[in-house]
């Protein structure tokens, strides 16, 4: 269903873990793609090009999946690094929205889809959150999500706005699996703290499908939680991952170590969690190909 008649898609952060899989899938589905990157690369423009020349001609849709890796263990959580984290999300959205707002009305992209995170919702062991729940104001990361999302709002009604509030993305060549695989392979896979914290997650193929549906289906608008239907805890995830690799999983990393390495402000992403579901996906009839963590991990490890 390409009701919106989208042909050319501009993808900020298209070189990253999510962006590169999404770009490949878009190309496979017959879309023309152009990336925005900090580095000059083939088939791409830089942020400076965007500022100077605006949106490339014939752009029908814009996606933003750019963002400095928050959980880079080699980077200390300094004010400078936090500023990078904000700028790479909030300022990139602002820049994209500015150039979209400046487009002549016949050249305006039909849709702008940007990513955000489920860190928007306050960690809680019992509460179930969907897109109609409130949040976005309890700590640095949730406020970041609020600012990130606010910065993605385009003026007027010519450009449809979609925000995909994603859970942890599981895939082969990046994200949490790439970071954790060596440890699990060595039999050192460990739950974090008690392991009872919930871990909203989604398979990379499913998050890319949500983005593509958001481009072509006019009914997609506003916030959509990008999460698989199965709710798991960190302990269940750890045990499943280790079992599928035929490795033990009796170890645990004390929360204090995670807080020491990452600082308590970002450690919450690992030590706390929230139960997140997507009512909007249900309403829109989105099919999730990998609904359980066991099946998703089997697919990734095969
Ligand atoms: N992976 C997940 O589990 C997950 C879950 C929820 C939300 N998200 C969000 O989704 C986005 C993409 O995640 P990802 O895992 O694909 O990240 P990634 O692999 O680190 O890629 C993100 C891309 O963002 C660009 N980027 C990095 N630092 C930047 C900076 N300081 N300024 C401007 N651009 C910068 C880079 O593109 P260039 O080098 O080409 O400029 C990079 O390829 C991030 O905003 C992340 O917070 C990810």
From TrEMBL:
Domain NAD-dependent epimerase/dehydratase: 9-217
UniProt-listed SUPFAM superfamilies: NAD(P)-binding Rossmann-fold domains
InterPro entries cross-referenced by the UniProt entry: DUF1731, Epimerase_deHydtase, NAD(P)-bd_dom_sf, SDR39U1
Pfam families according to UniProt: DUF1731, Epimerase
Limits of the DUF1731 domain: 253-300
Residues forming coiled coils: none
Leader peptide range in chain numbering: none
The protein, known as: Epimerase family protein sdr39u1-like
Organism whose genome encodes this protein: Dermatophagoides farinae
